[in-house]
């Protein structure tokens, strides 16, 4: 059941990001079929990666039962799927916020958050 919930959350966020991207392109008069196609393929790839991570968690759990270490395997599988899930969710939320910030110039709070995230990311890369 948790895999279904994780996939539904990822699919929902991917759809929200795609829709806000289309709205942003419409507002900016920059609608491009190439960008939409690339964005759609990125979303499909994210969903496939999340599905693979869920399958990996199941597979690691089965290996743990086979080798009589189900607790360790359960932890390893959960960490792997959880890390992928967290990364995708955070990436989608930031993208949705960026789109919203460009759609609504009055939302200055979004710009402040995005600037802080970019500064944090720049510090991490150095």
Q: In words, what does this structure look like?
A:
This protein is mainly α. The protein has one domain. It has four helices and no strands. The chain has helices spanning 2-27, 33-66, 70-103, 108-125. α1 (2-27) packs antiparallel against α2, α1 (2-27) runs parallel beside α3 (70-103) and α3 packs across α4. The longest helix is centred in the middle third of the chain and has 34 residues, at 33-66.
Provide key terms for this protein.
mainly alpha, 126 residues, 4 helices, 89% helix, single chain
Percentage of helical residues? over 70%
Overall mean pLDDT: 88
Ranges where pLDDT stays below 50 over 5 or more residues in a row are none
Number of domains: 1
**Large-scale geometry:** elongated
The rounded Rg comes to: 18 Å
Q: Quaternary status of these chains?
A: single chain
Number of discrete helical segments: 4
| SS elements, strand count | 0
Distance between the termini: 40 Å
Beta percentage is: under 5%
Which structural class is indicated by helix and strand composition?
A: mainly alpha
**N-to-C order of helices and strands:** HHHH
> Quick one: biggest sheet?
none
Question: How is the topology of this model organized?
Answer:
Blueprint: H1 2-27, H2 33-66, H3 70-103, H4 108-125
Helix pairs in contact: 1-2, 1-3, 2-3, 3-4
Task: Write a brief caption for the model.
With 126 residues, this protein is an all-alpha fold. The protein has helices at 2-27, 33-66, 70-103, 108-125.
């Amino acid at each position: 059941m948790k895999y279904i919930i994780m996939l539904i959350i990822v699919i929902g966020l991917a759809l929200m990001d795609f829709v806000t991207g289309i709205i942003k392109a419409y507002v900016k008069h920059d609608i491009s079929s190439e960008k939409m196609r690339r964005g759609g393929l990125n979303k499909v790839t994210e969903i496939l990666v999340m599905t693979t991570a869920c399958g990996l968690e199941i597979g690691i759990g089965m290996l743990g039962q086979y080798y009589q270490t189900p607790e360790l395997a359960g932890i390893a599988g959960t960490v792997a799927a959880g890390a992928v899930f967290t990364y995708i969710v955070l990436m989608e939320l930031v993208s949705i916020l960026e789109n919203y910030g460009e759609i609504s110039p009055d939302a200055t709070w979004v710009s402040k958050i995005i600037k802080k995230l970019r500064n944090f990311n720049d510090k991490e890369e150095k």
